[in-house]
Amino acid sequence: MKIVRQRVNGVLLLNKPVGLTSNAALQKAKWLLAALKAGHTGTLDPFADGLLPLCFGEATKFSAFLLDSDKRYRATMRLGIVTATGDPEGEILAEHPVTADCAAVAATLQGFVGEIQQIPPMHSALKHQGRPLYEYARAGIEIDRPPRRVRIAALDLVECAPPRVVFDVQCSAGTYVRTLAQDIGAALGCGAHLTGLTRTAAGDFTLAGACDLATLESLSPDARHARLLPPDSLLEYLPRVCVDDNDATALRQGRAIAPIETPAGLVRLYAPAGFLGLGQADAGRIVPHRLTAA
User: Fold this and answer.
1) CATH topology of domain 71-202
2) Residue 64 contacts residue 81 (beta carbons within 8 Å)
3) Which DSSP symbol is given to 87?
């Protein structure tokens, strides 16, 4: 059956299954919605599942704001076994006895809360000279990676039955939970790798509001589109500013509007017709930053 692509605008909260790449999940959802333009807001490894917000149409203009937001995960870690990738997909490099008890595990977890230095894994999509690191890793080439500063806002022990440990983590964008598990294992003196990872939240979005691909496929086309959140749902933490039609026209023409009483910084703009886009407020003026299509 021929699919007629259409302009679809909004955000879909998808519960990605284990075994599927983020791009494959995106393409499936894009096909089901018959959308012209789509993108995701940060990949999940194939072995991981959970919340994968997908942006369609006008929402793709604002996807970076969710990409840069904090994420929350539930992670299952296996102590005593070190793998090449830090997850169950890599070959086993070393095995060590596990002597740490739950008190030691809990104390070690708390030592990682706050700003920490983290060396990105070789098996990642970070680029080196235009190529992702995982391509070098597959070729057996090790690339020197400088440590990066990331922030662990919370790290809570959920279950502890060594060698199996489950923890919840809230972390800044760019944090590798695989690497965090490896570093925790190293600190415990036995090594570790992740055996399971579920993203439970991204920004203000939670897994509780997500649907899986099977559910989406079972719905009618109208019901599928009803699952979409509006593009401005990505920006609800920003101040809201309402403008009249004349100011909306000026902004669309690239002109500043003034005076507007609002804190300096990015603001959400709304015209009588609805969401207009983002503006940059400064000294009582607002200049267009990123606007929706007219």
Assistant:
1) Pseudouridine synthase (3.30.2350)
2) no
3) S
What CA–CA distance (Å, rounded) separates 125 from 29? 22
Query: CA-CA distance, 68 to 57, in Å (whole number)?
Result: 19
In angstroms, rounded to a whole number, what is the distance separating the alpha carbons of residues 78 and 192? 5
pLDDT tens per residue across span 121-169 = 766 666 666 776 666 667 676 767 788 999 999 999 999 999 999 999 9
- The angle, 0 to 180 degrees and rounded to 10, between the axes of the packed helices 102-110 and 177-188 is 130
Q: Domain 238-291 falls in which CATH fold?
A: 2.30.130
Residues, the chain, total?
A: 294
CB of 82 closer than 8 Å to CB of 193 = yes
Q: In the 8-state DSSP scheme, what is residue 41? A: S
Active-site residue 45, yes or no? yes
pTM above 0.85, yes or no: yes
Q: Is the Cβ–Cβ distance between 15 and 50 less than 8 Å?
A: yes
CA–CA distance, 18 with 31 (Å, rounded to integer): 20
Name the nearest CA neighbour of 59 among 198, 234, 178, 186. 234
Antiparallel, parallel or unpaired: β 164-171 and 71-79: antiparallel
Could you check whether the bond before residue 163 is cis, i.e. omega within 30 degrees of 0? Answer: yes
Catalytic residue, chosen from 45, 87, 183, 247, is: 45
Look up the CATH superfamily of 10-68+204-230.
Answer: Pseudouridine synthase (3.30.2350.10)
| pLDDT tens-digit map of 38-78 | 998 888 989 999 999 999 999 999 999 998 899 999 999 99
Distance CA 152, CA 290 (A): 30
3-state SS, residue 288: strand
Per domain, the residue ranges of the chain are 10-68+204-230, 71-202, 238-291
